[in-house]
Write a structure and sequence with these properties.
The protein is built from 27 helices and eleven strands. By secondary structure, the protein is an alpha/beta fold.
Length: about 600
């Protein structure tokens, strides 16, 4: 009976891996694909002096050694290779030449005008370097692969296939990976960035046009899920193949990697067994790995970072389809930390985190959450109170003993109405409500308001508006000035709760943020004597380097690792009481 209860969890899991290039997605995928013998990890033992933390590791290690099964890795790059192999050698190189011409045009505009082109395509291509061709000596290899794979995509999407599940399984897990690696090797000969630029561009094109080629006639929002749908076809083939085996094999899938948050949403809506894992690392460690392992230059890394952190206004379809690492990380279920320089021994910490969360996915409630997980879950829940229409952020604060003392979220001061609940039409009708400030009711602001585009009432959505965006629209230099925001920041709000309601002090405590403190909040955290700052998403500024890493009492800055949101409950809530489970197993 007990085995039946947990059977679904052990037999079907889909993981999406996300993170910046160099953070460790491929290292995580490699570990997931290996068996216990290949892992060759030392057993964890306990004795009379073992701490509770060590006992947790022991429990997880015991479960891991009895239940681990290797995952099948689906690489997004292989899916893009499949689309690339639709074309013969000359046709593909012709497309690469076209890409390069557009990239040159984008760079020329940026050089001549000192800013990015307003054209959505050229703006997107501004973040890419030179697009190179496949060399002539690779022709035979490529043409052979083209002949073998040109019909695979159509067959995957047909209701009735001519190939067996076994034939498709081999083609997708062996042959496709082999040619994909060869193409990667060819494109990376001069620089790894040549390869990443081409494949990221083709990935963006596929989400925009449904194909790797630039073709405005095919541009459609329905293409956004093209890659995700193809990966889903892979999953179905693998499951069908595994179900045919005797004994039946579990279908454990790791997608390496998801870099568009809409794709993660696609899988979350289809599989309750889907979890998005963010692999994070310090900027310095990522740079060292890319310099040593991929031979990218510092300028290459700088351009890659700009591409990964470019501002997404979502005003054009191009912004929806391009990679958005920051949003993927924010929407992740589980966070792994993979700090350490190139070839360091820190990979053991990453492996331990992988084992912990795979064990908890298979059998929830094996151990209780860490203090950091508990407090970040509080911050994560708090952020849902935010009425800000730009971004929701939550924060929590503990004293030096780990006791929760305050929570906060980004929102307006108590007694004021959040932006989410205000309506531009109401203000246009000369409302005298206290939901709007005296300035907002003035003729000066209403003239600014009149220039705003309104949504169709048939959508049934409240016509909220952002005061800062409208107020600074005619003054671009002020758009980054936080003085004009109506909301308090989440960390600031939490600090003010302590002053408002009283506290015995939080010196030596920890600040948890679902983002990370800006320069202003970082100064407050430093002044209040925070010993640790635990964060998920780096704030786009210099708070860390300029404020938190200076002086006599710098706090420890910690990337969060753990499960939050729905995953927190799915991993730590026991399906049946553990006592009942043990008694049932003892009777068998």
């Amino acid at each position: 009976m007990i085995n039946t209860i947990y059977e679904n969890r052990k037999n079907f899991i889909v993981l999406g891996l996300t993170g910046r290039i160099g953070s460790g997605c491929s290292s995580t995928a490699k570990f997931l694909s290996q068996d216990i013998k290949t892992h060759n990890l030392q057993d964890i033992c306990i004795d009379d002096s073992s701490s509770d933390q060590h006992r947790k590791r022991y429990i997880l290690d015991q479960f891991y050694r009895k239940n681990w099964k290797p995952f099948t890795v689906i690489r997004a790059a292989d899916v893009i290779t499949l689309y690339l192999l639709k074309y013969d050698f000359d046709e593909l190189n012709k497309s690469l030449d076209t890409f390069n011409e557009y990239v040159k045009e984008a760079h020329t505009y940026q050089h001549d005008h000192g800013k990015l082109s307003p054209d959505p395509l050229l703006k997107r291509l501004s973040f890419y370097g030179e697009i190179i061709r496949l060399p002539e000596d690779f022709r035979v290899t490529f043409e052979t692969a083209h002949s073998n794979f040109k019909n695979v995509l159509p067959e995957l999407f047909q209701p009735y296939r001519t190939s067996s599940n076994a034939e498709l399984y081999k083609k997708l897990t062996v042959d496709l990976i082999e040619i994909s690696d060869k193409i990667k090797s060819e494109l990376s000969k001069n620089s790894y960035k040549n390869y990443t630029d081409i494949f990221q561009l083709m990935g963006d094109n596929t989400r925009l046009y449904g194909d790797i080629k630039l073709d405005d006639s095919l541009k459609n929002s329905s293409n956004i899920y093209t890659i995700a749908k193809c990966i889903n076809k892979f999953i179905k083939v693998f499951k069908s193949y595994n179900d045919e085996q005797t004994p039946q094999k579990p279908t454990l899938i790791a997608i390496d990697a998801i870099r568009n948050s809409l794709e993660s949403m696609f899988f979350k809506e289809r599989y309750s067994a889907f979890y998005l894992l963010a692999i994070n690392a310090n900027d310095e460690d990522i740079e060292d790995r890319l310099l040593q392992d991929t031979h990218m230059t510092r300028e290459d890394i700088k351009q890659q970072s700009k591409k990964e952190h470019q501002e997404k206004t979502l005003k054009s379809l191009e912004n929806f389809v391009s990679q958005n690492i920051q949003d993927c990380i924010l929407k992740s279920d589980i966070f792994l930390v993979n700090n350490g320089k190139y070839n360091s021994e820190n990979f053991l910490e990453l492996h331990g985190q992988i084992i912990k969360y795979i064990s908890l996915i298979m059998h929830p409630g094996l151990v209780t959450p860490s203090l950091d997980e508990k407090m970040m879950q509080v911050a994560y829940t708090a952020k849902l109170n935010s009425g800000c229409i730009s971004r929701q952020v939550g924060a929590s604060i503990t004293n030096k003993n780990g006791s929760l003392k305050a929570i906060g979220w980004n929102s307006v001061a108590e007694g004021q109405t959040s932006c989410l609940l205000r309506n531009i039409n109401e203000l246009n009708c000369k409302s005298k409500s206290r939901a709007y400030s005296v300035y907002e009711q003035s003729k000066e602001f209403r003239e600014k308001l009149a220039k705003e585009s309104l949504i169709d009432v048939q959508h049934g959505l409240n016509q909220s508006f952002c005061f800062k965006k409208i107020y600074t629209k005619d003054n671009p230099d002020q758009q980054g000035n936080q003085v004009h925001t109506r909301s308090l920041h989440a960390e600031e709000n939490a600090f003010l709760q302590l002053a408002k309601y009283g506290s015995e002090g939080i010196k030596g405590g920890t600040l948890y943020s679902t983002a990370s403190p800006c320069e202003l909040c970082a100064k407050k955290a430093y002044q209040l004597g925070m010993e640790r700052v635990v964060y998920i998403d780096p704030y786009p500024g210099i708070a860390r380097q300029q404020i938190l890493m200076t002086g006599q009492f710098p706090p420890k800055i910690v990337l969060f690792k753990g499960a939050i949101g729905m995953a927190y409950h799915k991993l730590y809530e026991q399906i049946i009481p553990f006592k009942d489970e043990l008694e049932n197993l003892a009777d068998i």
